[in-house]
Amino acid sequence: MALTDTEELTQPTVAPRSVTVLGATGSVGCNTVDLLNRNRDRFRVTALTANTNVTLLAEQARLLEPDAAIIGDPTKLDDLRDALQGSAVEAMAGEAAIIEAASRPADIVVAAIVGAAGLRPTLAASRQGSIVAIANKECLVCAGDLVTAEVERSGTTLLPVDSEHNAIFQVFETGNASEVDRLILTASGGPFRSWSREEMAVATPAQAVAHPNWDMGRKISVDSATLMNKGLELIEAAYLFPVPAEKIEVLVHPQSVIHSMVAYVDGSVLAQLGTPDMRTPIAYTLSWPERMAAPAKRLDLAEIGQLSFEKPDLERFPALGLARAALNRGNGSPAVLNAANEVAVASFLADQLGFLDIAAVVEETLGRVTTQSITSFEAFEQLDAEARRIAQTLVKSRF
Ligand code: NDP
Asked: N or C end: fewer C-beta atoms under 10 angstroms in the chain?
């Protein structure tokens, strides 16, 4: 993976960069669209995709005038065509059309679909040989070997959008991994950081998605509340950076000002700081290796006054421990963890599962599924389907 290969991109950008946004209507997608709209002279949009939200997709397409707008749900193609009538934007629909859009030549593909549903489009984007700005962490968690193999084969550059990994990328100043002592992923601790297990047992979806610092999609917000998000990020970091898993630590930092750190063997610790606004890391990936202006509120440390830190509590938040164990076990375990978590979170959001049951369902699924290494997309699909089937059964037995 060419995370540090800046050679070809060090010349000032003359022509606008072409950008495709997969998952344009989501939280990361909307932040990306906002940046693209503020910088019309720097970017030309190739394609925008969504799953069901025709209204927002059409609005974004009218604003940014991409070559194509693609809706995942094929039954919504007529609605999209109607909404785009009179514009030059081509309307398309279905998973195959999203994959085709991801494969179109573009300087940057922003992979911001949520969940394992983003894997095929992200793999398609990774075959292109340009830049993939990856937000869709579940892809790396469930099939990191497949994604990194495609990236290496095609010479694609993978840039992390996730704020923690983007922070590490910004301060990962060595091509020599042996100079790195530790990666320190910071975690806000989520909305239930100080809640007891008894309180969490009756937590509602509305409480779980009310993140104290970040405004994000519902799935990742629940993952932040269970700390599974940090577990997924641990696995993501292990794929993105040439640092062994035991050298990747998690540190709770409730203010979300330090977005992550790299500790070096000489005792230096480099950190990236900023207000919690995804437009900063997204802007870094869109303009890399240069920087461009982003409208995030400026950091005022005197106003904040104090930064605090604590160790994660694995008793109250077992999901983090489950993710680390899955990473250590390998052999498809992270894919099982991810599939079970997606099923459990969707069930919790649908009021069919308690908050504490999310980690319990993941743990039990991991215990029941026979894992296998993921050497092909078909092997992934098989394991993913089996894990989802078992997780669904477990959810039903608890409902
Ligand atoms: P959202 O739920 O807000 O948005 C998801 C996007 O994916 C939407 O555009 C949605 O379309 C589309 N989508 C959903 N399901 C499918 C599908 N089956 N096929 C095609 N498209 C689909 O998610 P977020 O923006 O919060 O997160 C996106 C990814 O980025 C996740 O992997 C998350 O972990 C990661 N991330 C998010 C951060 C954030 O701040 N939100 C921060 C760091 C990482 P539609 O709107 O039509 O449903």
From this structure: C
The answer to whether the beta carbons of residues 332 and 146 sit under 8 Å apart is no
Domain that holds residue 344: 169-272+297-398
Which among 31, 70, 139, 220 is the best mutation to test ligand 1's pocket, defined by most ligand atoms within 8 Å of the CB?
220
What ligand 1 atom has the least distance to the C-alpha of 214? 40
Query: Does residue 282 belong to any structural domain of this protein?
Result: no
Neighbours of 41 (CB within 10 A): 6
> Which residue's CA is the nearest one to ligand 1's atom 27?
114
Cα-to-centroid distance, 53 and ligand 1 (Å): 12
Ligand 1: does its nearest atom lie under 6 Å from the Cβ of 76? no
Question: In this structure, are 209 and 330 located in the same domain?
Answer: yes
| Total structural domains within the chain | 2
- For residue 353, the SS3 value is coil
Give the number of the atom of ligand 1 that is nearest the alpha carbon of residue 139.
32
- Kindly report the CATH number assigned to the domain that includes residue 371: 1.10.1740.10
Classify residue 291: in a domain, yes or no: no
pLDDT in tens, 281-339: 999 999 999 999 999 999 999 999 999 999 999 999 999 999 999 999 999 999 999 99
**Looking at the structure, do residues 30 and 142 belong to the same domain, yes or no?**
yes
Atom number, ligand 1, closest to the C-alpha of residue 28 = 25
Q: Residue 90 in 3-state DSSP?
A: strand
Q: Which residues contact 272 (CB under 8 A, 6 or more apart)?
A: 166, 167, 168, 170, 171, 258, 259, 260, 261
Are 129 and 44 within one domain? yes
Q: Is the pLDDT of residue 365 over 70?
A: yes
Same domain assignment for residues 176 and 255: yes
Give CA–CA dist 331/300, Å, rounded. Answer: 45
- Residue closest via CA to ligand 1's atom 41 equals 216
Name the pLDDT band for 233 (thresholds 50, 70, 90): very high
N-to-C CA span, the chain: 44
- What is the average per-residue pLDDT within 57-81? 98
